[in-house]
């Protein structure tokens, strides 16, 4: 999962200080692993270098916390591309998927679209596995089944998330 | 790309004041297996019933092989279901008083096939689905998986061009569910029948060529979205 | 006992909180049982109805007085007739003494030109179409007959005040000194008693069978409830007790509903009359002992029936297993009731005759009940055995046969009521048809020669006679009137009719040919040969008992009466007017007129009556019929017919409920059948087969049992065996008709269940 893209997503709703960004990130995605300040500023400077964010203004005084960052058009395009793209179906994607859904809600995009896109990608892989299962030997079949069950678990979680969207929306957008 | 065999366009249908379908679309090409997915109460079964001509939509059109289903009389639609369609449901679909063989032969008998010929064809299908041994038993005396396979045999026995399946593995465990799905889709592909498969299980939907999602009575064709 | 109370209370609570399903079930049971209870109460009221009716008709009856007239003597002349096809009790009265006796319900004997009428009669007089009746009875109404003087509330009855009655023995009236028939009723003769016992058994056994099925309404839903109770830890005995609570509740509700039906029906009963019989609401009182028996016996029976029925059902926590399919029904114990019943009846052969013999009512009743109930017991075995061997034909029959094989007991139960009812009705019919000829009194009249005979006892000359004939001829529907002077002629002790009329009339009377005015004929038949010409005779003519001597002229022609004459085998001497003038006969004689008319329409008869009454109210008009059935026997037949129809209808209603309930339980398979394109007609035919097969078996059994039972009973009366096959066919057809009707009524429900919406119930 990319911290840079997540920060871009957080910035899309408006310019923020680095400190604000860290707090917003920790609140929504940090859970057990809050970001270090160093991580925030090194990521931001990488984004600055890539032209995805720009400095909106520096307030008087010293220290990095005086700088306000804003997303650039290039940054929005990057973010769009990421959110619209299905993650490669593989187990334990929930962090990324969760981040994507929340960011979609935060930035006024359709979370249903993200779910549908992801569902299509998952099912495409599951179809391939199902087909391979019907031709393969027993070991193949067992391996395929294992993968299928995990993919299904992800998809089910995704569907549950979809079903809870209304509640989630209220929580995310106070 | 061939022209679709069965098309449901902008179908709306409510039960009393409750809208079940609110502009759903479905398009199935010959020989294609389409999964209809969606949460409970999303209207996916209603979409299946409308597409099969069991229910008449309040508005919208259903066309099969160029003919508008929604304009046919009840008797004509019944005849169409007898000759062109096959059905598998979740449970309670076998006539409990008839033997499994008689259940499978029933659609043939309804279509006017002679008793002996119907029984022979039915037995062949039971054998293809590996359930010839339950031919003489009543549905109440066979296991769920066997019963479902008998139901699949019954759906396929008339050589239908479209099979409708509503949660066909809903009452089965993973192993028997897999078995039934495999036999079902393989037999359908062998006989060139298109399948409309309503399910909420991704693993079952993975047997399909593509999927359509029904949400709040509206359908999203993922293939078209891509 | 405490456990019983606790479990029953639980069962009652389950019904009360069971939602719409439980209430629907309870309502159906209550209505079904209620109909049965109403019939039972009705049957329990029959003794009271008959007693009160007999009391009243005896009180207004009279015996001809002998000896010298007294202060209370009254002359009377019965003028019973018809109005609108219904009987009219009419009596002309004329006071002889200073203080004439007054019939019950009448305050004052009507004077000349006055009449006292029943309420129905008064209503008919006042009705817009009452002109015929008003013309027929041009009297002033001076009073209304009270209930105590009527046989029923809808009776037409009238007392006419007259001053032209004469009481001598050839006069037009008799004398009574007091009202009321002092001789007690001779009681019912044994054959009639046998018929009545059979009739009541044939009504009540089906009702009992019906009640037994009615308390089992909704057994499918009850099964689920039982399973749920087992799941939360109730033992089997407990579930049975809670289940019987529902039956008990249904039976109690049924008692209330039945009492309601009965009371409501009681209020309506006075509005009905059937074949001249109507009943006062006040007479319709159940025998207290029988009523208590119903009130106590029914709930107890309901609980017992449920417990017995549930013995075959094992309620397990995860569902209900019926044991019926696992064990084949055995025949031997099912044969016990009918065999024992026949064993009670057969030894009575030849014991019951009309003239004598006594009837052991208890033994006969027990035998009848056992045989009839045995039919219901035999039927499940028969259905199972026959259906078990049937294979499928078409899809419809296949579905029906397999369904019947799966639950042959249920199928048998649904038609057992009809089977028993039809068996009873056939037995009745057989007994009845065999016995009936003994009660048909030949009248020796041939209805082909004339359709009505008009008797005018006034002494009238030719002009008056012609006026009567002309008056009658004007009545609509009358083709021809032959009026003649009528008297009696004796040679020694042999009597015959004396007839004075023109040649056309004589031809109509006896079929004599080649007649000319002045001729005398003497006619007879093989059995009563004609008087020989030249015989010395005594003539009796008119009210004054005049005896005249006359010798039949030697020139009289002898003739054989034609087969088609009105008064079959009576011998007669016929005189043409000129011959009469040459004889000592007076010119004025009582008149008889033969009327040829189409009287099939009751109104035509009413017009003829009125035409005669306009000439003179005392003129009697009588329909000609080949034979008349003893009135009492006719009453019994009518009562039983009404009963059979009522029973078949009630059972038909219950059959409808049962079939609908069975259909409801099959909603899912029906919807699936519809989904894969089954034609409605196929399912409709399968439903028909499903009822028709057990019904045909039931009716076959019913015909067998009915014919055997009827034959045994007929042997009891020592009458020759004779079966009224057309009647049997009629009753069987009525039973089959009820089933067809029920099936037709269930079809809309089948169509509704086949509507695809039904799929959504899952």
TrEMBL record, chain A:
Gene3D superfamilies: Winged helix-like DNA-binding domain superfamily/Winged helix DNA-binding domain. Residues 7-78 form the Transcription regulator PadR N-terminal domain. This is PadR family transcriptional regulator. It comes from the Bacteria.
Automatic annotation (TrEMBL), chain B:
One of its GO terms (cellular component) is plasma membrane. The keyword NAD does not apply. Residues 6-226 form the ABC transporter domain. This is ABC transporter ATP-binding protein. Keywords: ATP-binding, Nucleotide-binding, Transport. CDD domains: ABC_MJ0796_LolCDE_FtsE. InterPro entries: AAA+_ATPase (IPR003593), ABC_transporter-like_ATP-bd (IPR003439), ABC_transpr_LolD-like (IPR015854), MacB-like_ATP-bd (IPR017911), P-loop_NTPase (IPR027417).
UniProtKB/TrEMBL annotation, chain C:
The chain crosses the membrane at residues 26-50, 191-215, 247-269, 289-310, 331-350, 362-383, 418-439, 640-660, 687-713, 725-751. InterPro entries: ABC3_permease_C, Membrane_comp_ABC_pdt. GO terms for cellular component: plasma membrane. The keyword Lipid metabolism does not apply. It is found in: Cell membrane. The keyword Cytoplasm does not apply. It is a multi-pass membrane protein. Keywords: Cell membrane, Membrane, Transmembrane, Transmembrane helix. Residues 201-314, 643-747 form the ABC3 transporter permease C-terminal domain. This is Membrane protein.
